C-alpha cells in the first residue's frame, strides 16, 4: 500500500495533467452542438462545387420564413372577429324611445307627431340593424364579423355594416331634411344622445381561439423529396427551388432528433477530435516547452484560456451567429505571448480556431480569417508594456479582418453592391474588445502567479522599495547588480532571449547580501574584511546564505517566481574556490563538495546568461592593467570553466549562443575599461 502511495505521489504531476486533459475535453464537448452537421458549403446564386448530390433520406421541403410570414399575415387579415350581440339592449332602447318621444312632442302636432315618430323608429331600426359598437376598433371595412348570441352564431357580416355610436346623427338629420322636418333636428339629436346604447362587444377569447386554430393549420413544408432523388448536379447554380431544397436538407441535418445510439456516436466522435487537438498541444509543450509542460499552473492557464474562448464563441453563436466576429479571439495569442512566447501563442491559437470550426457557420471563412489575424497578432505585437504598440497592433489586426472579409465577400457575391458594412462594425468592436488584454493580463498575474513584461517593466524601476533598500544597505552590491543587468540585457538581445526578464533577474539576484553586506568585498569601503576573523568554512556558509536569504526576501516582497529563479540559480553548483583553497591549506583532505553551492543549475537561457555575466562582472574588478588580450583571455577562462563544470547542461542554450555572449561581454568590458588601440610612435 505504501509503495502504491509513493508511486502516486511521484506521478502526481502527470496524473493532474491527465485529469486536466479529460476535464477540458469533457467541457468543450459539452459546449458543442450534438446534432448532425451538414458537410457541404453553398451560397445562393453560386455554382454547386461538390459532386452530384442525392437525397440521403426522405425529407420535406421547408417553407422559407418569408413564405410562412406571408401565410400568417393572410390568415390574420381574413380571420373573422366575433362580437357578442346583446338583443335586450335594442328592446330596451325602443321601449325607452316610445316613452321619451311622447314626453318630448305634444299631441297638438297631430299627424306630424305620427310622422316624426315613424322617422325616429326608422332611424333606430337602421342603426340597430346589425348592432351598435361600443367603440371604434379600427378594423378594415371588409373585415369579416360574426355576431354571437351566447355561444351561438346568429349572423355574419362585415365591419363596415356595423354602426358606430355617433353615426346616428348624420342618418337622423338626413331623414328629417328629406321629409321637410329640419326644424326638429336639434330636439331629435338631443333625445337620441340620451337614448342610444351600444349592444356589440368584441369577444376576444373566441376571436383569438379561432385565429389560433387557423394558424395551427399552416404547414411548414411544401412537398417532399424521396431518398436517392438527384437534388443538384456539380456546377449547377444554387437558385430558386434548388436552394430551398438544399436549405431544407441542411436544416434536417442540424435539427433532427437523434436517437440514443446516434447521440452517443456523435459525442464519441467529438471527444476523439477534441482530445486529439488537446493532445497535440500537450505534445508540443512536452517537446518544445519542457519548462511549461512541467509547471501544472502554466498548463492549466493555457487550457483555461482555450476553454474560455470556446465558451464565449458558443454563447455568441447560440444567441446570434452573425455576431461571431465580435469575440476577441486574438486576445488568446496576445496573452500567451505576454506570458510565454510567440510560438506557443500561435500554436494554441491555431488549435483553438480548429476547435471553433465545429460550431461556427461558414467554418472555412471563419478559420481563414482567425488564423490570419492570429499570425498578424504574433508578428505585430512586441513589447506589450508599451501602450502605443498595443493600439497600433490592434489597428493592424482590425484592418486585416476587414480586408480579408472584403475579399471573401467579393468572391461569394461577385460585386460590392450589397456590401455588408455591419460586419465592419463588428470587426471594430472586436478590436476594441482586444484592448481589454491589458487589464486581463493583470488579472491573470494575480490569479495564476505569472509574470508579464508589463510587471517586469515595473520591477526594473530602480526606485522600487526593495532596490532602494539594496542601494542603501549594500551600495556596492547595487552598483554590481546594475552593471550585471546591463551586460545581461545586451547578451539576451544578441541571442534573442527575454531581455526584460534577464535584466530584472540581474537587478534582484544579489538582494540576499543586504542581510550581511560587509561580508562581501564590493561593500567593504573601510578596508576591514570581517572574514579575517572567521574560518574558511564559516565564511563559506555566510557566502552560501546570501542565496537563501535572497529567496526569503524575494518571497516576502512578493517577487514573481520567474525572478526568484535567478536568485536561486545565479551560482548554480559552482565552488567558492577562494575559501576552499584556504581550507585546503589547513586540511589537505578537505572535500570540495563542502564548498559547492547547493544549486540548482541554470535551467533557461536567461538564467544561464545571468550566471555568465555575474561571474565575469565580479571577477573583472580584479583585473590589473586590462588590455584587449587580457579581457579576451579573462572572459574565455571564466565561461569555459563554467561549461567544463557542467553549469549549462540544463539550460536551453547552444555553443553558438554562448560564443555570441562571450563576444558581447568582451566588447562591453573593453568599453567599461575605456581601452584604446595603441598608436605607433
Account of the protein in words:
This is HDIG domain-containing protein. The chain crosses the membrane at residues 14-32, 263-285, 297-317, 344-360, 366-385, 390-411, 423-444. This protein has 681 residues and is mainly alpha-helical. It has 4 domains: 20-35 and 261-448, no CATH class; 46-63 and 219-257, no CATH class; 72-216, no CATH class; 454-673, Orthogonal Bundle (Hypothetical protein af1432), CATH 1.10.3210. The protein is built from 28 helices and 10 strands. The strands form 4 sheets. Strands 6-5-3-8 form a 4-stranded mixed β-sheet. Strand 5 (144-149) and strand 6 form a beta hairpin. Helix 5 (111-127) packs antiparallel against helix 6 (168-178) and helix 21 packs antiparallel against helix 22 (499-508).
Short description:
By secondary structure, the protein is mainly alpha-helical. Helix content is 62%, strand content 6%.
Write the layout of secondary structure elements.
Elements: H1 2-10, H2 12-31, E1 53-54, E2 59-62, H3 65-78, E3 81-85, H4 87-104, H5 111-127, E4 132-133, E5 144-149, E6 152-158, E7 163-164, H6 168-178, H7 185-195, E8 200-202, H8 204-216, E9 221-225, E10 230-232, H9 240-255, H10 260-288, H11 290-293, H12 296-319, H13 331-339, H14 342-356, H15 363-380, H16 387-413, H17 421-434, H18 437-448, H19 453-459, H20 465-473, H21 475-495, H22 499-508, H23 536-556, H24 561-569, H25 577-586, H26 605-620, H27 628-644, H28 655-672
Parallel strand pairs: 3-5, 4-7
Antiparallel strand pairs: 1-10, 2-9, 3-8, 5-6
